[in-house]
Amino acid sequence: MDFKCATAFYILFWTAVITSANHNEEFHEELYVKPLPNGQINTFFQFTTRWKLEAGQNLDHTRLMPRTIAEILNIFDVKELHISLTQGLWRYETWGYPVVDSSPGAEMWAWFNGNLTRAQVDSQWKKLTSTLSGVLCASLNFIDMTNTVEPKYGFRPQFGTSKTNSEANGHIRYATLPREIVCTENLTPWKKLLPCNSRIGFSSLLTSGHVHNTFYHSLAVHLRTLCDDEIKENCIIELRETANIVYDQKLLGGSDFSLRKMFGQGLNGACSLADTSIIYVDVTNDRYTLTPEPKEVITSTRGGVTTLFAVYNVKEESNDKLFNIAWVAKERKNSVPIISPPPLVAHRYILNHGQERGKVVTEITNSHWGPLNVVVQENIPWYVPVYLHTLTATVNKERITPKLVHYIPGEQRERPYHLEVALTVPAKSVVRLSIDFDFIFLKWLEYPPDANHGHYLGSAVISTVLPNTKNYTGIPVDGYLFAHSFNASRPGYFLQIRTESLILTLPTPDFSMPYNVICLACTVVALAFGPIHSVATKKIVIESRETSHSILSKLKRKLFGKKTKEEDVAEEKEVAEEKTEDAGTDLEKESEC
Amino acid sequence: MRKKLVLYLFLAAVLRYFLIISKFSRIIRNRVEISTPLNSFKRVQEGAYLYKHGINPYSGDLVHEVPTILLGLSWVLNNCECLLPFLFIALDLLTAFFLYEMTKMVLRSQLDQARKAKYAPDTEDIQLKTDDVEPLSHYVMMAYLFNPFSVASCVAQTTTVFSNFFLSLYFFFLAKKQITPCMLFLAIETMRSMYPVVLLAPAVLQFSENSLAKAIKVVNAFLALCGILSFLHYSMIGNWSFFDSTLGFIFHYRDLQPNIGVFWYFFTEMFEHFRTMFLVTFQMNATILYLVPLSIKLRKDPMMLATILLALIAIFRSYPCVGDIAFYLAFLPLWKKCWKFMAQNFIVFCFFLVTVLVMPTLWHLWIYAGSANANFYFGITLGFCTGQIFLVTDLLFAHVKREFCLKNGQKLFIDGKEAKIILE
User: Fold this and answer.
1) Which of A414, A417, A521 sits opposite B266 (nearest CB)?
2) Lower CB count within 10 Å: N or C terminus of chain A?
């Protein structure tokens, strides 16, 4: 028995040594801290796992890559996957653009393998959402064809070459669940996907008490496979887990802050499986003195904008005490931080009076000196029926014609309205895109438990290519680390921003009424049924007015079936007349006395 | 007489035109009592827009108009939009005119019958006379032209104007006894709104003259025309999706927007597993439930049968609107000789007056002020239906009583005491 155990142990040991020697998997952890101009702090975590898959290797044997993710890639033919779970709203005007943008609630989109048919993509999408619902403990299983759209222009694949990208056309599915509430039950499974779990490394900073006590927090998973066009087996699988958190300085107790204040504890060293563990601090504005002082400051010039980053390599720090960075505000009297707005921001709101008709308005502001081409993807659920002929785009109350409109009408309880509008926003101006809708009346069981809370409309997604990088921190599509955004000048910078998600209070029925309504409506129907059938089926007779006046005699007749004398006479006459009349005549003749 | 006719038509046209160009037209167009999901002009506009931009209008669920009308209106919208109000006014006036002509023919044929029949001596006041033809026809026309319901329906430019136009043509050719055009317009209207299929019964009674072969011929003509129309629609759109968006939409009652009928709250509050059963029950109630008994009872009077069926459709259809009600109300003067026997005139009048006035108020309280709820509006629509039901049953009973009295005299006595008519 002992011998067997020892053999098994040796086999396991040598397998481990061989696999680790084979360096085709890498893991990086990065933290980016940026004090925002209006007294908030943005911290952005990125954990990147990259696995070079060569011929002969399969997805069943994973090392750093979580097994669940590898299985998802294997089973569901996914080429690229993005999920984000967000609480709060990103304020573009004051915070600039985030490294990774996401809409409030849950948002998810995926690109599927180019050789699937439409129906296969739909079925894989449904299975994928259900699976991820379990993986992340989120309500992603509520994503189905009633809230899924197929973006045509606004989304670009981030995998492969232009050839595979053109094949991917039509193989994307996108859905949002704006009502989703993000909480600690999502954070734990998200951390479990990391190689070092939450015990050590940057992820140990993400404790639920401190993450969920913030202005804005967004957890995301980004997955893509990059394959060689010639040798299909040569692929790179790239998993990026990001956490974007915005703290309020006031809640942290004043203008000075530190890692310990933000996360409740210092950093207990780097994850030993990580190739790099680096903290980047934005020191462009020079408002704080950093303690300890950074060993290195990187200057990044990208698209004409220069940014300074202080770099802390945590791997090089000693591990005997918790690592902490403190930001101490420099004394600068009469100084007000200037907020320079980003080139493109958008807002969305509902205009209505009463619960009958309304308008969804998307306002896109371009503060850049040149015109910008944008694609607006409206997100309109089936319970907001919009009229395409009322779609108007105006600049300073003057109508402009959109360059392109892609519209698939929705269907109640079947599919959402899919509207994508491409237009040019002139320099230094605001475009108002509005569309009319009707308030809809749902079946009583289709209202959510708190019916008067309202129904959600997910964010609209606005995509554009920016000419400069003012307030832009995104990672280029050919890179995967935050460090890859340094000095990464390109002809244009692809940007997606999301508007607010909206809430719409639909008129409600009285939920306590079903039996009453059924009874009352049926009574009214019976009111017609009774008289019409008695006219159609009963024969017409005459009756003495006196007999009918006496209620007692009526009652008597009903009870005992006894007939009064007059009626007997009338009836006898009728019977006699009936014989003489033509067959088929139902009118009885009664002669005058 | 002709001058008078033209004057009425002119006045009605002016009234409609000024309402259309006034600021009220917007309010009228948006009323749920007037514009239902089925007939609202906004949805026709949407359909026309989608068709123009190469999107199948029936792929969504906003458009419920048949391809012929949709494409026709689409053409008008794209080429001469300013003429659109005139089109609707013209159709409404033509409807009134055909009703007028129809009434004349119906009354004349009734007169012919009356001459042959022998009536009881004291029934002069309930007998039809030659002098009645012209005024009654005028009343019918005026009842349509100046009924606030039909005016509202026309001002809102609902497609019910088309429905009424086709139905008036159906009645015109029914009275004129021309099978093919009569069946054509019935088929057109049936393809649009399903319920008029029951009007096949009066047509069969009118044309068959107690011969089964003729009856089959009439039904065949109807079915053949329905088939031809379907193919026409198919060739215009290129697929069959319009069927589900028109007839399917009416039958399945997919849009629960409140209207003046009994369907909306009933199916909002319905338990899901009973839904299909009640749907079939309610649709039967609006179509075939009364068809057989009434057809047997009124087999000698197809016009009366048509009137009653028309009224029942207007009350019990899934998306009723005031335009439908205006159309059957216009038939009431045709039966003026029955009015004497109608016992609930005052009650019905009060029902109509109160419900029509209170309806917008309760809608406002529910939807805009938020101080009432759906039950209030449901209650008032039930009241409105009840009033109409009283009217219809009263008219039916009055007709039966009149027939009885024409034969037996109006003064009925049993053993020297005054007697009354009852059903047993």
Assistant:
1) A521
2) N
Domains of chain A from N-terminus onward: 2-329 (no CATH), 344-504 (2.60.40.740), 511-538 (no CATH), 541-593 (no CATH)
Is there a contact between A397 and A431 (Cβ–Cβ < 8 Å)?
no
Residues of chain B with C-beta less than 8 angstroms from the C-beta of A438: 257
Exposure class string for A164-175: b at 16+ Cβ within 10 A, else e:
bbeebeebbbbb
ipTM: 0.92
Contacts of B212 (CB under 8 A, 6+ apart): none
Total structural domains within chain B: 1
Residue of chain A nearest B317, judged by CA positions: A525
Closest CA–CA distance from residue A345 to any residue of chain B (Å): 30
Q: Which residues of B109-139 are buried (b: 16+ CB within 10 A; e: fewer)?
A: ebeeebeeeeebeebeebebeeebbbebbbb
- Does any domain span residue B384? yes
Task: State how far the Cα of B381 lies from the Cα of A363, in Å rounded to an integer.
Answer: 41
Contacts of A570 in chain B (CB under 8 A): 414, 419
Residues of chain A contacting residue B296, judged by C-beta atoms under 8 Å apart: 536
Chain A contact present for B98, CB below 8 A: no
CB neighbours of A528 closer than 8 A, spacing ≥ 6? B285, B290, B312, B315, B316, B389, B392, B393
Please give chain A's pLDDT, 593 residues, in tens. 454 545 544 544 444 444 444 568 899 999 999 998 888 999 999 999 999 887 667 777 888 899 899 888 888 989 899 999 999 999 999 999 999 999 999 999 999 988 889 999 999 999 999 999 999 999 999 999 999 999 999 898 888 766 666 667 778 999 999 999 888 899 999 999 999 888 888 999 998 888 888 999 999 999 999 887 777 778 889 999 999 999 998 888 888 899 998 998 888 888 889 999 999 999 988 888 998 899 899 999 988 888 999 999 998 887 778 889 999 988 766 667 677 889 999 999 999 988 999 999 999 999 999 999 999 999 899 999 999 999 999 998 899 999 999 999 999 999 999 999 999 999 999 999 999 999 999 999 999 888 889 999 999 999 999 988 888 888 888 889 999 999 888 888 999 999 999 999 999 999 998 999 999 999 999 999 999 999 988 888 887 766 555 666 667 666 765 444 444 444 444 444 444 444 333 433 333 33
Q: Is A549 on the interface with B (CB under 8 A)?
A: no
**For A532, which of B61, B396, B413 is closest by C-beta distance?**
B396
Contact A535 B411 (CB under 8 A): no
B421 within domain boundaries = no
* B373 domain residue, yes or no: yes
Residue B420 falls within a domain, yes or no? no
Element (H, E) at A310: strand A305-313
- Chain B residue numbers with beta carbons less than 8 Å from the beta carbon of A537 are 293
CA distance B284 to chain A (A): 11
| CB proximity under 8 Å: A 397-436 to B | 405, 407-412, 414, 417
B390: which chain A residues are within 8 Å (Cβ-Cβ)?
527
- Residues of B in Cβ contact (< 8 Å) with A518: 266, 269-270, 278
Q: What pairing do the DSSP bridges indicate for beta strands A429-438 and A386-395?
A: antiparallel
CB pairs under 8 A between A and B: 215
Contact (CB, 8 A) for B69 and B160: no
